[in-house]
Write a structure and sequence with these properties.
single chain; 89 residues; little secondary structure; 1 helix; rod-shaped
């Protein structure tokens, strides 16, 4: 490959001055934007309410002097329905 030098001649260019007439614009009125508060959107409850019935029996041995004290101790420990009291020994 052979390199060849390139010479570019530039001639002077004369540019005539341009005059521009002033532009008068009509007055512009700008209104303030309307600001609205956003409300929280609540989703309707989609999960159905479920009901459960739990039934259980608990057997506990209590030491009491008589049947009244045994019943008081059972109620104090959280028993709601006392089904049976049996005397042992």
């Amino acid at each position: 490959m052979v390199e060849v030098p390139v010479v570019v001649a530039v001639a002077p260019v004369t540019v005539a001055p341009v005059t521009v007439a002033p532009v008068t614009a009509a007055p512009v009125t700008v209104e303030a934007p309307v600001v609205r508060k956003l409300r929280a959107v609540r989703k309707p409850r989609t999960v159905p309410t479920l009901r459960f019935r739990v039934q259980y029996d608990v057997e506990t041995v209590l030491e009491a002097a008589d049947i009244r004290q045994a019943l008081r101790l059972a109620v104090a420990s959280g028993a709601v329905d006392v089904l049976e009291i049996v005397r042992e020994g």
